[in-house]
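Question thread 4412

I'm putting together a teaching handout and wanted feedback from people who do this every day. The idea is simple: show students a protein as raw sequence, then show them the structure tokens that encode its fold, then repeat with a second protein so they can compare. Below is the first pair exactly as I plan to print it.
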Amino acid sequence: MTSLTRFALPLLASVSVLSMTAAHAEPTQELIDAAKAEGTLTTIALPHNWCGYGDVIAGFKAKYGLDVNELNPNAGSADELEAIKANMGNTGPQAPDVIDVGLSFGPAAKDQGLIQPYKVSVWDSIPDDAKDAEGYWYGDYYGVLAFGVNKDIIPYAPTSFADLMDSAYANSIAIPGDPRTGNSTMMTVYAAGVAQGAAAGGDALNAGITYFKDLKENGNYVPVNGNSQNLAQGTTPIYFDWDYNLLAMRDTLAGNPPVEVVVPSDAVVAGVYVQAISAYAPHPNAAKLWMEYIYSDEGQTLWLKGYCHPIRFNDMAARGVIPQDLMDKLPPAENYAKAVFPTLDEQAAAKSAIADNWGKEMGVN
């Protein structure tokens, strides 16, 4: 796969102008009718507070009148593929129609014959390097690694990985969990390595491990599973996560305490999630209609409302259809302009390095 550096361009740069027909395409009436005849869509791993999925699901139901059967909202990407495998011959309510998974799981699902191709009507506005050419999987949204800061505890927020080494942040910094088992945590370690100037892949990951080892030895890193509660209570007032999770948390806390979300200036590392339709979907037409909805301007805007950058962001920005009030709630646009998107090969090298070296370097099992 080619590197996804296209998204590192300024927001309105290098955007091809689509035809009005392509930009505003709608699903056919035949597809709508077929989906309504099926009556139900089964999703999996879509918590309502993730990327604004609560509003997305509600919008789909309101627009088309289908029921949505939601399986295991807190499942991970691997769980989603296992759910397809476990229900290959089952057309009941435990068989997912659609999946939303981390980038590496799209090609894996294709190789295993677990997904089927479908190209939405706005296919041409999805960047080529964020989709499978045959239509088996396609990027839906992305976020960047950031950290939230409890401003009651730390009035002057650090702005970089380098800043976090300062003794002013003793016993303050946490990551979401074990980077050997969580993608966002692994990518946080990866981003720390990028900030040290390391080459992409395993080198960046190993440099990130060294960074966190040093952060632990100087007393700034707290080896607990960081979460929004710990940040709000001040137990770990600096906490890493995807920007969309942190921004949603900031809004939920509503100033109690005040939270600043920082995209570190020395490493802006992004992660793409992808959509696909199960090869064994009990409701294939409902699944296709779901894809049409979430890739429409309406669906993409709802993701941005949930602080996830929709994959068609540049196209929508070029056409001036993104509400300004949504833009105003995001960190500065220039931060996102520096984003780098690790390739599948680079992520694979990072996973190997984290498995081999995190435990022994950090002194954990």
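The second pair follows. I'd like the answer to focus on this one:
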Amino acid sequence: MSVASEYLQLQRQSADELVRQHAPLVRRIAYHLMGRLPPSVDVSDLIQAGMIGLLEAARNFTTGKNASFETFAGIRIRGAMLDELRRTDWTPRSVHRKVREMAEVVRQIEIETGADADDAEVMRRLGMGAEEYHQVLADAASARLLSLSAPDDADGGAAFDVVDGDSLSPADSVEHEGMREALVEAIGSLPEREQLVMSLYYEEELNLKEIGAVLGVTESRVCQIHGQAIVRLRARMSGWHEGQAERSAKQRKGTKGM
């Protein structure tokens, strides 16, 4: 056996051992994510995607890095699971449509009043009863509807998608940074309880039951508050997208005139 072949064989053995040792990490991450996802998601699909992420991590990890293999693998495993969730969007189109309609009504009310849209007024304008209204909020919270970088007619997307900055052109990088700043500002303008739920869910990574324990309310109520925050953010970010579209159009027009 040549030196090169021997080296490759040792690499494969080392990768296989890392996969065996850290397989429980995949299940742990999968079940942690499941606490924040609707029941329609199959945990076995997440585990399968996570195992692929673990295998890729084992093949690409090199010693001497600052991060441990478990940290490195955890990032790859989680990323593979999120990619799987993005690839298989379980949300019916009707849900996306209703949330878009609700966000537009919220936006209209807030433009007219200069204040946070009131639930009762949103229901009145949509012609919805309380039960249907709360169901749409629950759907908004459990589905990946907050694709704030997507146009209004898009059917979905991942919540708070993280874009690889290295893959962006200079113009795209400026736009992405502008969107992130607008999103941070929009979150900061939410009612206090909605801000807290968003922080506990996305930053602290608590599930709805854990957030309910913190706030002293039921899990279903947390789901509604989360949905209200998502709808409100979608409404407020739509103005930023319209302004961005206008700026892009002016830039294209100016380029043609040169």
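Top answer:
Good format. For the second protein you could add a caption like this: Confidence is low (pLDDT under 50) at residues 1-10, 145-174. The radius of gyration is 22 Å.
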